[in-house]
Amino acid sequence: MNLERDLTRALRRTPPPPGFAGRVMQRIEREGVQARRVRPVWWRAAAASLTLAALLGGYTAHHVIEQRRGEHARDQVLLAMRIAGAKMRYARQQVHGIGSER
Amino acid sequence: MKTGLLVLVFTIAAAFPAAAQQINLDFPGLADKADEVVDVTLDATMLRMAAKFLSNDDADQRNVRDMIHNLEGVYVRSYDFGSDGDYDPRASADRVRSQLGANWKPLVNVRSRTKENVSIFADMRGDKVNGLVIISAEPHEFTVVNIVGPVDIDRLASLEGEFGIPRFSAREKSHD
Question: Are A81 and B64 in contact (CB under 8 A)?
Answer without folding.
Answer: yes
